[in-house]
Amino acid sequence: MSLYDDASLIMFPSGYKEDKIYSLKPTDGSGDLTFTRASTATRVNAEGLVETASVLGSEQITNGDFATNSDWTLTQATIINGAANISTSGSLAGIVQSNVTTSGKTYKFNIEITNIQTLGSGISLTSGGLTSSILNTFTTLGTHTVYFTATSTTIGIKRTNGATDITIDNVSVKEVITLNVPRIDYTGGGCGKLLLEPQRTNLTTYSEDFANANWVAIDASVTTNAIISPDGTQNADKLNTNTTNNYHRIVANAQATATTAHTMSIFAKKGEYKYIGIAENNNDVGYGVFDLNAGTVLTSGSGATNVTIQNMGNGWYRCQLTFTAGAYSRFDIYAINDSYTSGNPAAYSFVGSSSNGLYIYGAQLEANASYVSSYIPTLASSVTRLADAASKTGISSLIGQTEGAIFFDGVINGVGNTSTNIINSEKNTTCSFYIQRVTASSQINAGFIFSGTSTAVVNGGTIAVGQRIKIGWAYKSGSNALYINGTLIDSNSTTFTPPSTFDDLFLNDDTTFFAYQEAVQFNQVAIFPTRLTNAQLATLTTI
Do 373 and 434 belong to one domain? Predict the structure, then answer.
């Protein structure tokens, strides 16, 4: 069986832009999914680094290749032979272009320096005219790239660091767009997956600055910017112990809401010590201790659930646990020496050393969360990442109306306490199909809702959180079947007649039936307009 030949729609997470996820099939754009998330969000890129998901906007510079003698305001500069020459004459020399940027937005700037008459001299970028403050200075030949936040609608490029002729070419300014950008995520390695998550809030402020006053050190200290972090820059801190015979920790000022589930997480890397403890400090049972050498959970308290550690590469691990908050629950992080064996880290005392510790980055305390989600950076206040949404409407021609098959290949990263749709059609109970995870058993259900009543339902199997799963559901009046990972889970001969048209497709929808989302990575979604055979379903879903 050829998946490409038989399917009417295939979503494979590769091509995307702002507001759009391209379908592999059809190729004419009629199957492209609309994407929204009106906030920034992070992902793990193909190099294994944590970054803000972004795309570049259109070119904002006119005549950046200097093909014509136009569009730039020249001061002691000329455009000739497809380049701009900034001369030695005068104390202020350069080029300016207006109506390029919007104040407060972030841009990517590229420039090529092809000649510097006197090495050591250079040019500078300004957001504004030639007299504006310098953003960056370049003193070597070649192509240079920087990111800047605009404070003006104008950019300037001026000679600096001495009087000399400088020739430049290929100037480019493009907006860095972070809102409504799909996340192709490489957490866990392998191929990229479309990451769709629910809304989450990181209550921890200054999530990367543990020396800030919002963190309180107890028999400990913090060395800032001590090592390369999971985002690839040197901005991870070191949590050091001192020589007092006590536990050694830092405590966040962010406070959880009592009686609700919260999840805390931290990126950590071993230093002189290999054990790190995280805990909520309202009582003695919501803790976990992690081995940063072996990459394992060493021990945990009875008040902690979902205690896990994830390898992020380059010696970094993400440690996390879930707890039910008490009246004053906060986020504690412990540096623990190698003599520790078990028990509450708040009851483990040892004599430390001001030069011994471990490395930390990206603290997160997620409100009303029973599992960890992608990292949400913060500064002076909590930050909310809004929910991802991916859908396609008006595709009745691609969806089998009286028979067909729906295929899902992906990873469910976390499950909450509410049933949720992984894939569904219309946002109503009049005539919809669905593949959903059911709360109590974490099993898969697939079927229809016609006029408020479920019909032709097939169900079973158990989702393993964090593990790849392939689901194939085939439907036809009198012949319905559910396959998971190559195995027939359930089937029935229920007959049905759809009362209306299936016209839409929603992935991990948060507004249909249950108003809840999981955290799901989509490797692939496919729609087949005719019922696949059971043998085809077995082949399609085998991992």
Answer: no
